[in-house]
Design brief:
α3 crosses α4. This protein is of the alpha+beta class. Helices cover about 20% and strands about 35% of the residues.
């Protein structure tokens, strides 16, 4: 592969401060360990859920999610008729991309998704699982209203059984 002297090769690390006078060498991305990846997933609430369209193209949606490190399951609340559950029923391949504490780090959880049946009655297994995705309610009346609403909304739980975690960080020293 031929490269211009001031352009690093495709597999070389790049520095955002790259100029014609430097070598293009900067800190290389560091693969995050399994515990670091799990911690990052647990610390965040929002991620980008990718599913596969019938055309084979990815479909991306920002979602609020919950990570269960012990079970290695990502859970997302949706409604039965939305596009994401329909796509995942057709092709269960899914990935959740989560940004780290800075723009140079991320985690991805890949796996096969399953979509629950819609919540059918307040207090059924699906509505209780959806309740577990909330911070909880101090007032029993608010909890009852939530359980009734998930039934009215035909809410489902998307569960991604994570088979692969990966991600990187770019450890850049702080400048003063």
């Amino acid at each position: 592969m031929t490269t211009h002297p001031s352009t690093p090769a495709e597999n070389e690390p790049r520095s955002d401060s790259h100029t014609d006078t430097d070598t293009g060498a900067g800190p290389a991305p560091r693969a995050l360990t399994e515990p670091e990846l799990s911690r990052l997933l647990g610390e965040q609430q929002f991620g980008v859920l990718a599913s596969v369209r019938r055309t084979g193209h990815p479909h991306l949606t920002t979602v609020l999610y919950s990570w269960d490190a012990e079970e290695r399951v990502v859970r997302v609340s949706s409604t039965a008729d939305r596009l994401k559950p329909r796509q995942l029923r057709t092709d269960p391949h899914a990935a959740l991309h989560v940004r780290g504490p800075d723009e140079f780090s991320f985690a991805v959880a890949e796996g096969e998704a399953e979509v629950s049946a819609p919540a059918a009655a307040p207090g059924d297994a699906v509505s209780r699982e959806l309740l577990s995705l909330t911070p909880g309610f101090e007032d029993p009346a608010e909890e009852a209203a939530f359980l009734a609403q998930v039934v009215a909304d035909r809410r489902v739980v998307i569960r991604i059984r994570v088979s692969r975690l990966y991600g990187t960080a770019l450890d850049i020293p702080a400048t003063e």
